[in-house]
Design goal:
CATH architecture: 3-Layer(aba) Sandwich
Order of helices and strands: EEHEHEHEHEHHHEHEHHEH
Shape: globular
Helix content: 25-40%
Number of domains: 1
Strand content: 15-25%
CATH class: Alpha Beta
Distance between the termini: 34 Å
Largest sheet: 9 strands, mixed
CATH superfamily: Alpha/Beta hydrolase fold, catalytic domain
Strand order of the largest sheet: 1-2-4-3-5-6-7-8-9
Number of helices: 11
Number of strands: 9
Structural class: alpha/beta
Length: 329
């Protein structure tokens, strides 16, 4: 089995206290960052866990700010590297990167790492795994947080540039990276440090993962049955997911709050970590937080603005089943 190369930008790969390894049925080894709650607060929230699931191309490192923030507030902060991402195994076998296989990996992580009360936080493609976990472990998952996730529609496999053979993707890698950074980060955040964490996978992993995005059951009917209160966060300048797609998710879920965050695009948790952390914390601590204030550029729905008013004219046509749709346009 071929394993992934060490991610040179990861700060935690030698820290055994904050890293665990989970082996799945297919002998895939998943690296999981696990930050224990601070001792001074563990008595109040030590039995609660936040489990963060990243999207295509990233790793658990994209959640660095959130892991630090919430572990200091008494939560077990847990974030796996999906197969082929970060430090997890990266076997060169397409069938291991299907949604069906990867959701089983997420279940393995959850079943081994969950606490008495659990909240799942997903980003982009990771929101699909978060929703699936919520449906399968309903009694153990109290809330959901979905960032840049798009509409409640069935997933279909990627076509276009990202379906090309791995050799061609290798040749196109520099151009694909530049295009991703251009679309995934707000123009004020183009030069932010460590943005490489958001898109750093071998070409064959990218191809297999995009090809494996098939989840016909993940439609509007499925999401309408999710009972957990859900927080939806969307960057105002997101070029990979349209605001209208997230609004559709907001209207489909039984109980949800939707906020648009200014000066942020698709990688919202990296671009505006302070605002994102405070919004999540407020959501965790209150059953009804719509009237509370979070300092910064935040617009809740339905009160101040509609998606068309919030989103500028450069919003791309929604393709919510293609989590990296803009790369093939």
């Amino acid at each position: 089995m071929t394993t992934s190369k060490l991610n040179k930008i990861s700060p935690n790969h030698h820290n055994d206290k904050e890293t665990q390894w989970i082996t799945t049925e297919a002998d895939v080894k998943l690296r999981v960052q696990c930050l224990e709650p601070s001792h001074e607060m563990s008595g109040s929230s030590g039995s609660k866990a936040l489990i963060f699931i990243h999207g295509v191309g990233g790793s658990s490192d994209v959640w660095g700010s959130q892991l630090q923030y919430f572990s200091k507030r008494g939560y077990h902060a847990i974030a796996p590297d999906l197969i082929g991402h970060g430090f997890s195994s990266a076997p060169d076998k397409c069938s291991l990167y299907t949604f069906e296989s990867m959701r089983k990996h997420c279940l393995d992580v959850f079943d081994q790492m969950c606490k008495d009360t659990n909240v799942i936080v997903g980003h982009s493609y990771g929101t699909s795994f978060a929703a699936y976990l919520a449906s399968q472990r309903q009694e153990k998952i109290s809330k959901l947080v979905l960032l840049s996730g798009g509409a409640p529609v069935a997933l279909g496999p990627q076509s276009g540039v990202l379906s090309l053979p791995s050799f061609f993707l290798s040749c196109l890698r520099p151009a694909l990276s530049r295009l991703f950074y251009k679309n995934a980060f707000h123009r004020k955040n183009k030069n932010m440090p460590n943005k490489e964490k958001a898109f750093d996978v071998p070409p064959y992993v990218l191809r297999y993962t995009m090809k494996g995005q098939r989840w016909e059951a993940g439609n509007e009917e499925f999401h309408s049955k999710l009972s957990q209160p859900t927080l939806l966060l969307h960057g105002v300048d997101d070029q990979l997911e349209a605001a209208s797609a997230t609004l559709q998710m907001h209207q489909t879920l039984i109980t949800s709050e939707l906020y648009y965050v200014d000066e942020a695009s698709h990688m919202i948790m990296m671009e505006q970590p302070t605002i994102v952390n405070k919004l999540i914390e407020r959501f965790l601590n209150s059953d009804s937080s719509a009237d509370e204030h979070v300092e910064g550029g935040v617009s809740p729905l339905p009160t101040p603005r509609s998606p068309t008013e919030t989103q500028s004219t450069h919003v791309t046509k929604s393709q919510p089943n293609l989590r990296l749709a803009a790369l093939s346009s």
